[in-house]
Amino acid sequence: MINVNDVAKSFGSRTLWSNLSFTVGAGQMVALVGASGSGKSTLLNCMGLLEPLDSGEIVVDGKDITTFRAGARRRFRRDTLGYLFQNYALIENATVAFNLAVAAAGGARRSRNREAFEVALQSVGLGGRGDDMVYRLSGGEQQRVALARLLVKKPTVVLADEPTGALDSDNATTVISALRRMAESGCAVVIATHSKHVESNCDSTVELLAGR
Ligand SMILES: Nc1ncnc2c1ncn2[C@@H]1O[C@H](COP(=O)(O)OP(=O)(O)OP(=O)(O)O)[C@@H](O)[C@H]1O
């Protein structure tokens, strides 16, 4: 479903990666690993069309998304892409349910009701917390709200940047299980991580070696 073909990216004279190719099939979870600064977040940003490549292509469902113009980019982000950022990207001064409703409005419109939200919240261990204000939640709880938002949106490509970073091991397991369920439902999931535990739960690993 995702074919990353011969991509390269530099910042100034510093090459992060080049001649990099890999595939993520629908239903697969791939770990993106490498030393701090090797360019994992940058690669996810390129795959999410937040950052341009220097060369190469990223083919999703047969289309090179890096050639998309503004309208097609918007539709790709809205309909296909689920992004789990390191900073959660939640609306802090709003309820948990409102944050899920925003995701539903952008993607899976039919699952906008509170029942669907409650199912998603329960599956990340936050059942009954829909009316809580996001700014009152702990970092780990916010991280799981961001995951519940993905479950509501039902994207087909999921890019996750250190999704277990702020979590204890029980909650990390909850997150990995939820991502696995998304894969089982047909998603292609890419997870940038320093965690050996997360890596061992993925189907394959792509290692970034600085300057390769
Ligand atoms: N817009 C930018 N301009 C210049 N340099 C940048 C830019 N974005 C990232 N970098 C640099 O590119 C390198 C790779 O950063 P990136 O965040 O992708 O690494 P990473 O592998 O995700 O690191 P970590 O594991 O620490 O999160 C870093 O040295 C960073 O400073």
| Overall CATH class of the largest domain | Alpha Beta
H/E element order: EEEHEEHEHHHEHEHE
* Order of strands, widest sheet: 6-7-8-3-9
The helix content, as a percent range, equals 25-40%
Coarse morphology: globular
Tell me, rounded to a whole number, the average pLDDT: 90
Q: Give the low-confidence spans.
A: 106-111
Find the structural class using helix and strand composition. alpha/beta
Keywords: ATP-binding, Nucleotide-binding
GO molecular function: ATP binding
Protein name: ABC transporter ATP-binding protein
Domain ABC transporter: 2-211
Structure description:
InterPro entries: AAA+_ATPase, ABC_transporter-like_ATP-bd, ABC_transporter-like_CS, ABC_transpr_LolD-like, P-loop_NTPase. It holds the Pfam family ABC_tran. This is ABC transporter ATP-binding protein. By secondary structure, the protein is α/β, with parallel strands linked by helices. It has 7 helices and 9 strands; from the N terminus they run βββαββαβαααβαβαβ. It has helices at 40-47, 70-80, 96-106, 114-123, 139-153, 169-184, 196-200; strands spanning 2-11, 14-24, 29-33, 55-60, 63-64, 81-84, 157-161, 188-192, 204-207. The longest helix has 16 residues, at 169-184. The structure holds adenosine-5'-triphosphate. Residues 11, 16, 34, 36-42, 192 line the site of adenosine-5'-triphosphate. Adenosine-5'-triphosphate binds next to α1.
